[in-house]
Amino acid sequence: MANALIIVDVQNDFCEGGSLAVGGGAGVAAGISRLLAAEPDRWDHVVATKDYHVDPGAHFGDPPDYVDSWPRHCVVGTSGSEFHPELVTGRVEVIFHKGEHAAAYSGFEGHGPDGECLADWLRRHGVDRVDVVGIATDHCVRATALDAAREGFRTTVLLDLTAAVAPDTLDVALRALDGAGVTMVGEPVITAA
């Protein structure tokens, strides 16, 4: 069986200077790139997810409540939806877009260019173990890792390569991951954006 790295939402709008910035996001992008360069054979497959909004309805709020609604972010066709420049994407085999017309937090809600969902793609490539990295630990990384475990993949979150929004939501996320049997390694980045 094979293993895969899932890079979650390392996009300009989620990094410093973006419309929904998470402190430490740029450093996470650079750290993922360094790890991929240092350990090129660690993963059989590398995939990435993108928040990719066309019109997600109430997911955008004016004003946002930062619970169910958020500032406009990762709108298709904007620079905010692009990967952060510190993330080297040469190893990424496929990008799974999520959230075009509704809120979507988990990469498992996304689809590749041919419409295939992430779980099906991983199974088709013989993957049974996944490592999850990206932004934000307490939102999309959490949701992606929980769905990976739910789908039967042996799941690890490399916390050193994640950035969290806030201590209270991070604590809730870590408890949920632990309760779902997700392995966690390291400590997440948590700083003011």
TrEMBL record:
Residue ranges of the TM segments: none
Pathway: Cofactor biosynthesis; nicotinate biosynthesis; nicotinate from nicotinamide: step 1/1
Species whose genome carries this gene: Micromonospora aurantiaca
Residue span(s) of domain Isochorismatase-like: 4-183
Pfam families documented for this protein: Isochorismatase
Keywords noted in UniProt: Hydrolase, Metal-binding, Pyridine nucleotide biosynthesis
Record protein name field: nicotinamidase
EC number(s) given by UniProt: 3.5.1.19
Entry's family note: Belongs to the isochorismatase family.
Entry-linked Gene3D superfamilies: Isochorismatase-like
Class of enzymatic activity (EC top level): hydrolase
